[in-house]
Amino acid sequence: MSEELQEHKGPKLSRRDLLTASSAALAGGSLPLSSAALAAQDNSTAESITPFTVKVTQALIADLRRRLSGTRLPDAGSDSDWTQGVPLFKAKALTDYWLLQYDMTRVERRLNAFPQFRTHIDGLGIHFLHVRSRHQNALPMILTHGWPGSVIEFLDAIDPLVNPTAHGGTADDAFHVVIPSMPGFGLSDKPANTGWGLPRIGRAWHTLMKRLGYTHYVAQGGDLGAGVASWMSKQHSTGLAAIHLNLPVLFPPPPPGAGGYTPEEQAALDQLIHYGADLSGYASIQASRPQTLGYGLTDSPIGQAMWIYEKFQAWTDNTGSPEEAITIDKMLDNIMLYWVTGTAASSARLYKESFNKDFVRFGLDHPVTVSVFKGDIFTPPRSWGEQTYAKLTYWNEVEHGGHFAALEKPDLFANELRKAFKPYRR
How many degrees, rounded to 5, is the angle at CA 12 between CA 68 and CA 94? Predict the structure, then answer.
C-alpha cells in the first residue's frame, strides 16, 4: 500500500477477516443500498423543520466491505500517470485503504457533530446543516456545494465561520451557516420528475432561509453551487444582500476588437480549451446519459470512488497527487456519502437538467463578490467579471487552494468570506 495513504491509524484487518464478517452479516440475502436506512429518523412533514441524525447501518458497512473485497480492477494500460484517468497503482492503494484502514463510521460521526435537519420544500425533502454562531450580530449565510462535492466540503470551514475569534477573526466576522444537500445529493430526496434545475433550487434555498427566519442573508457557492447562488441573485430573492462565488460562471464574453485578448484572457481561454478537449467527458456523460452511468457506479464502490477521486486530482491544487491537497480520509468521507445514499445517478441528473441550459454566463445587477483560487481548473480574469457583474464589489485571487476551496483550505476560504461580505452586515 502506498505510504501516502497511510493516514488513519485504526486497526488493520485482513481481507479474510473482512470477507468472513461480511458473509455472516449478509447471510440473509443481498442488501439494496438506498438512503432509506439513513433516513429512518426523518419525521419532517409539510413545512416543519425536524432534527435529523445520520446512521450508517452495520448491514450497509458489511455489504460495502464485501463489495470492496471482491473488487475486479482493469489492467494498467499504457500510461502510468493520470493522462487516462486514475492509475492502477493509485486505485489499488485507495481500495486497500478503504477496505482495511478507513473508519467506516467516520462520516456518520463527522456529520452528527453538527446540528442537522430535514424539511420539505416544493414537495421534496431537503437535508441541511444549520449552525448558529454565539455572536449576536452574525450574518446568516447559505452555502451550496457542487458535483462531486457534498456538505462534507464545508465541515472544516464551519468553526472558522461561526467562531471567528478562535481563528484569527473578530466577533464582527461571525456567520450563522446553513448548508443544504442539493436535491439528488447526499441526504436530500431524489427528484422523481424532471424540473429540479438550478433556478428551482435557488428558489427552494430562498424558501429555506425564510423558513429559518432569516430576512437578511448572503449566499455562497462554487461549481454548480455557484450556479445556484447566481440564480438566487438573478431572481432577486428577497433579503439576499449579496453572493460570493469561488467559481464564477464567466465563460468568455464576445471577442474583443482589433486588440485581441489580453495575455490573462488568453490564458483563461486556454484553460477552457483544455477542459473541453481533455477533462469534460464526465460532464458530457452526466448531461446526456446519467441513468446509464448510474448502474455501474451504484453497483460498484470502486467505480463510484474512481469517478470522484479522479476529480480530486484534476481539480485541486496539487503537483500530481490529490493527497497533497485533501487527506485520503476526507476524500473517502465524501465518497462514502455518495455510496451509502446511492446518489450516483440522481446527482448526475442535475447535469441533464441544467449544465448546458442554466449553468451559463449571464449578467447580474445585484452585488457579487468573487474569490478565484489559483489551483482551480478555470481562473477567469477580473475583466470578464467586470463585464458581467454590474455590482462587482470584491475580487481576489488566492494563491493556494483549488476547486474544492473549503475542503482544501478552510481557513483561507473562511477569511475570503469575511472580507467579501463585510459591507453587507447590519
Answer: 40
Domains of the chain: 3-109+274-352 (3.40.50.1820), 115-262+363-424 (3.40.50.1820)
Question: Rounded CA gap, 57 and 400, in Å?
Answer: 38
Return phi, psi of residue 85, to 5°: 120, -160
pLDDT at residue 257 tops 80 = no
Q: Give the mean model confidence (pLDDT) for residues 305-309.
A: 98
What are the residues whose beta carbons fall under 8 Å from the beta carbon of 234, sequence distance 6 or more?
202, 362, 364, 366
Q: How far apart are CA 44 and CA 261, in angstroms?
A: 53
In terms of residues, how long is the chain? 426
Residue 53: C-alpha distances to residues 32, 63, 112, 261, 313 (Å): 21, 21, 6, 52, 31
Cα 230 from Cα 246, distance rounded (Å): 12
- Per-residue pLDDT of 389-402, as tens digits, reads 999 999 999 999 99
Q: Does 8 have pLDDT greater than 50?
A: no
Residues pairing with 368 in the sheet: 243, 392
Q: What is the pLDDT of residue 37?
A: 45
For residue 277, count CB atoms less than 10 angstroms from its CB and return exposed for 0-12, middle for 13-18, buried for 19 or more: exposed
Residues 122, 125, 126, 130: is their CA dihedral positive or negative? positive
Alpha carbon 403 to chain centroid, angstroms:
10
pTM: 0.90
DSSP 3-state of 247: coil
Helix, strand, or coil here: 120?
Answer: strand
Q: In whole angstroms, what is the distance from residue 71 CA to residue 100 CA?
A: 13
CA distance 315 to 57: 32
Could you give the CA distance from residue 258 to residue 311 in angstroms, rounded to a whole number?
38
Q: Which three cell numbers stand for residue 417?
A: 468570506
Beta-bridge mates of residue 392:
368
Cis? peptide before 253, omega within 30° of 0: no
Distance of CA 270 to the CA centre of its chain: 25
Q: Identify the residue whose cell numbers are 493516514.
A: 7
pLDDT score at 43? 55
Classify strands 139-144 and 116-121 as parallel, antiparallel or unpaired.
unpaired
